């Protein structure tokens, strides 16, 4: 298939397709049309077909989509047919919540290290993974192949540790810190700003309340 630039909006919808198709598999649904899928996802059937055509289509006219096949193919597109070694830096409430989320491993994301600067947390195990001190991070990175690092620590800590990760070969960072990391272009950064998401929710709630008052 010819390489093409895929829009961020399409990439953002792929995990939604994957999740809904997974639900359909659990319900023993074998095939589904774009119209039926659109009703569940609140995305137009035309948009679904356009999105999937970026990767080859996968459907048959008059038949629709084979749910299991499409689920597996989208999983491959998302890279979920591979296994990724992952570490979490910042063992506070959010970091420990991520470490305890067992579905990550089912998707191929193996959490093999958790780090923090608080000496009171040293050796405390989260789902069998002992928390290590951040000053041991460089040696850990040298001894282990790490694909993804999740940063669940304050802004200053994230800005300090990110270059260390890059220096030791980590190419993907899941950034929960309240800062935009300035890193080389080849480093993949996915930033999750929880406060911004909450503000968007507040905006939508405010608009809904105004509409009810009118």
Task: Kindly describe this structure.
By secondary structure, the protein is an alpha/beta fold. 46% of the residues lie in helices and 17% in strands. The chain has helices spanning 8-26, 34-41, 45-53, 67-77, 93-99, 103-106, 137-143, 155-167, 194-213, and strands at 31-32, 65-66, 84-89, 109-116, 125-126, 129-133, 148-151, 172-175, 188-191. Strands 5-6-4-3-7-8-9 form a seven-stranded mixed sheet, with helices on both faces. Strands 1-2 form a two-stranded antiparallel sheet. α1 packs antiparallel against α4 and α2 crosses α3. It is globular and about 60 Å long.
Map the helices and strands.
Elements: H1 8-26, E1 31-32, H2 34-41, H3 45-53, E2 65-66, H4 67-77, E3 84-89, H5 93-99, H6 103-106, E4 109-116, E5 125-126, E6 129-133, H7 137-143, E7 148-151, H8 155-167, E8 172-175, E9 188-191, H9 194-213
Biggest sheet strand order reads 5-6-4-3-7-8-9
End-to-end Cα distance:
52 Å
CATH fold descriptor of the largest domain: Rossmann fold
* Known CATH architecture of the largest domain: 3-Layer(aba) Sandwich
Which stretches are poorly predicted, pLDDT < 50 over at least 5 residues? Answer: none
Could you spell the SSE succession in H and E letters?
Answer: HEHHEHEHHEEEHEHEEH
Q: Could you tell me the strand content as a percent range?
A: 15-25%
- By helix and strand content, what is the structural category? alpha/beta
- At the first level of CATH, the class of the largest domain is Alpha Beta
Q: Mean of residue pLDDT?
A: 92
- What is the CATH H-level superfamily of the largest domain? NAD(P)-binding Rossmann-like Domain
Radius of gyration: 21 Å
- The count of domains is 2
Describe the main β-sheet briefly.
Answer: 7 strands, mixed
Estimate percent helicity. 40-55%
The number of distinct β-strands equals 9
| Inertia-based shape | globular
Number of helices: 9
């Amino acid at each position: 298939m010819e390489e093409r630039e895929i829009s961020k909006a399409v990439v953002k919808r792929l995990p939604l397709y994957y999740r809904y198709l997974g639900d359909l598999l659990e319900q023993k649904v074998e095939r589904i049309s774009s119209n039926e899928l659109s009703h569940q996802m609140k995305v137009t059937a035309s948009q679904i077909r356009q999105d999937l055509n970026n990767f080859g289509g996968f459907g048959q006219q008059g038949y629709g989509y084979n749910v299991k096949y499409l689920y597996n193919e989208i999983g491959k597109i998302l890279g979920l047919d591979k296994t990724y070694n992952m570490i979490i830096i910042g063992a506070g409430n959010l970091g420990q919540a991520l470490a305890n989320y067992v579905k990550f491993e089912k998707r191929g994301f193996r959490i093999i290290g958790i780090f923090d600067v608080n000496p009171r947390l040293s050796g405390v195990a989260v789902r069998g993974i002992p928390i290590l001190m951040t000053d041991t991070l460089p040696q850990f990175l040298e001894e282990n192949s790490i694909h993804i690092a999740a940063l669940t620590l304050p802004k200053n800590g994230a800005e300090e540790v990110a270059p260390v990760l890059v220096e030791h070969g980590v190419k993907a960072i899941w950034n929960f810190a309240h800062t935009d990391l300035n890193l080389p272009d080849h480093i993949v950064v996915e930033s999750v700003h929880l406060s911004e998401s909450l503000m968007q929710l507040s905006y939508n709630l405010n608009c809904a309340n105004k509409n009810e008052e009118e």
